[in-house]
Design brief:
The protein has about 550 residues and is an alpha/beta fold. It folds into three domains: about 90 residues, Rossmann fold; about 280 residues, 3-Layer(aba) Sandwich (Alkaline Phosphatase, subunit A), CATH 3.40.720; about 80 residues, Arylsulfatase, C-terminal domain (2-Layer Sandwich). Helices cover about 25% and strands about 20% of the residues. The protein has 13 helices and 21 strands. An eight-stranded mixed β-sheet has the order 9-8-12-4-13-14-5-15, sandwiched between helices. Strands 17-18-19-20 form a four-stranded antiparallel β-sheet, with helices on one face. Strands 1-3-2 form a three-stranded mixed β-sheet. α7 runs parallel beside α9 and α8 packs across α9. The termini are far apart.
Length: about 550
């Protein structure tokens, strides 16, 4: 027995003024959702609603979009505005989301680095908006990726640890690690699924790390094409044939992995993924709008770069280096890949119609790069572990070369993309995300709202510990779950988090801690419980 309810994308009602578009919409919806008047041109803005189509056997739901009439000109000069809305309904913007793995906040020239060479990414920043206070949804990778695709906090998803396992020393920690899902649940409706339903071609290229076969690969979550995405968090090798092994933390057994099948001797994974992506874009052309999600494996370990690039960075005196020469070479290869993809977009004449987002999944790896003035690195709740680059440019972005210091996080990308593409937002899906469009438009503003983190786990990264965190305005409070210790920082005055103000500001500490606990209750955050295997715990 098949499901009688199916989805059928969207329908845009387009025609001359007073042709009956709004009347038809109201009949389809069974209610007066669109204004109907004898005077032409009453409908000026897009109205998008769900409508039921029933032929006596099958029931289908479509998104019906009522547009202003083509050719409207009135004394308020609203004609061009309405024409723009019509165009948006007929053809959405192409969308590209670059997500770099383990790229730190200071690891781009446009972020202030004098060591790393990133001209192509810098070009994105100079043509759009760079968010100075952007954050990853988690201190490690898989939860952030889940937040990007669902618009929800990892704690709400119960996907708070990197996959497939995060237990490093179950017999040696006072607390048991919080439970977490081993894959992105199929019941979650991803950004890719929504865009595909709106008529988009959907491409995934690179690191998935949200589960594997048989039911949690990119193709199971809305992507038409998948290049190199599986359950692995790192490639076996960045050079052909891209094979390696991984040691399971609990058993110490080794499991083989291969990030990509294909290529030939000498091929570098970052280059190959970029070339495959360009091929997909060219094959699609302008046949339909596309959504490209390009989550790089780089610059995650193993540290492996192209020899000629490494040698150039080795020429820089050690005292002037921000990071390891091999890591710098990997950053440059990521920049080259961004350049290849954007070059293809320009050659096809699609640059002005393409929205581009660039960010990272967490802070940089300790020992590979330095985030000064930020404290700590990947795996830590201090700023170096969670503050990341975020750049948005292209179609619809009116501010050029601007910055925004309002805090933003990974969950915000989902509703931002929908709104910038002219598509209805899905507030019941992206529950924790808020649109950043106000910062991208010439006259827009963003209100400050609290951002939350919850990580009930251990990991091996320096200055890491199980934690819950809230940032509200310039205040940031951290609660360490094993010890109960609380720390408070004023980031406006102390970006390096050197002075704990929890004792000096008890009223602020109390208020933020209460808000943090209320949020954890709301999202049903997984607790940490005492470990019965460790003496002295209850």
């Amino acid at each position: 027995m098949t499901d009688p309810i199916t989805r059928a994308g969207f329908v845009a009602l387009i025609g001359e003024p007073n042709a009956g578009k709004s009347t038809l919409l109201n009949r389809m919806c069974g209610s007066r959702v669109s204004i109907v008047e004898p005077t032409a041109g009453v409908t000026r803005d897009r109205i998008a609603v769900q409508a039921r189509l029933f032929n006596g056997v099958d029931e289908r739901w479509v998104e019906v979009i009522d547009t202003g009439g083509v050719g409207i000109v009135d004394r308020d000069d609203l004609g061009p505005h309405v024409e723009e809305q019509v165009a948006t309904a007929m053809a959405g913007a192409d969308l590209i989301l670059f997500l770099v793995d383990d790229l730190g906040w200071m690891d781009l020239s446009c972020q202030g680095s004098k060591f790393y060479k990133t001209p192509n990414i810098d070009k994105l920043a100079s043509s759009g908006v760079r968010f100075t206070d952007a954050y990853s949804a988690c201190v490690v990778c898989s939860p952030t990726r889940a937040a990007v695709l669902t618009g929800k906090y990892p704690a709400r998803l119960m996907l708070t640890q990197w996959l497939p396992d995060g237990r490093w020393n179950p017999n040696g920690h006072k607390m048991r690690t919080g439970r977490f899902l081993r894959s992105l649940p199929l019941e979650e409706r991803t950004l890719a699924e929504n865009l595909r339903e709106e008529g988009y071609a959907t491409f995934h290229a690179g690191k998935w790390h949200l589960g594997g076969a048989p039911f949690s690969l990119p193709e199971h979550h809305g992507f038409d094409h998948n290049l190199g995405g599986d359950d692995h968090g790192a490639p076996g090798n960045y050079f052909h044939p891209f094979k390696g092994s991984w040691r399971v933390p609990t058993t110490k057994l080794r499991a083989s992995k291969q990030a990509f099948e294909g290529g030939e001797k000498g091929d570098y994974l970052t280059d190959l993924l970029a070339e495959g992506t360009v091929k997909l874009i060219r094959e699609n052309g302008k046949k339909k709008p596309f959504f490209l999600y390009f989550p790089f494996y780089a610059v995650h370990t193993p540290l492996q770069g192209k020899k000629e690039k490494i040698e150039r960075y080795k020429q820089v005196p050690k005292e002037e280096r921000q990071g390891h020469p091999t890591y710098a070479a990997m950053v440059e290869s990521v920049d080259d890949a961004v350049g290849k993809v954007m070059g293809a977009v320009r050659e096809l004449g699609m640059e002005k119609d393409t929205l581009v987002l660039f960010t990272s999944d967490n802070g940089g790896f300790a020992g590979a790069t330095n985030h000064a003035p930020l404290r700590a690195n990947k795996g830590s709740p201090y700023e170096g572990g969670i503050r990341v680059p975020l750049i948005i440019t292209g179609a619809g972005v009116e501010r050029k070369g601007a910055t925004c210091d309002v805090p933003a996080t990974s969950s915000d990308l989902y509703p931002t993309i929908l709104e910038m593409a002219g598509l209805p937002r899905k507030p019941r899906q992206h529950l924790d995300g808020r649109s950043l469009v106000g910062a991208l438009k010439g006259k827009g503003t963003l209100k400050i709202k609290p951002i939350f983190w919850h990580y009930p786990h251990y990991n091996q990264h320096p200055q890491s510990a199980p934690h819950s965190v809230i940032r509200n305005g310039s205040w940031k409070l951290m609660e360490f779950l094993e010890t109960g210790k609380v720390e408070l920082y004023d980031l406006a005055k102390d970006l390096g988090e050197s002075k704990d103000l929890s004792k000096a500001k008890p009223e602020v500490t109390k208020e933020l801690l209460a808000r943090l606990h209320a949020w954890k209750k709301e999202v049903q955050a997984e607790p940490m419980l005492p470990n019965p295997l460790v003496q002295g715990t209850k």
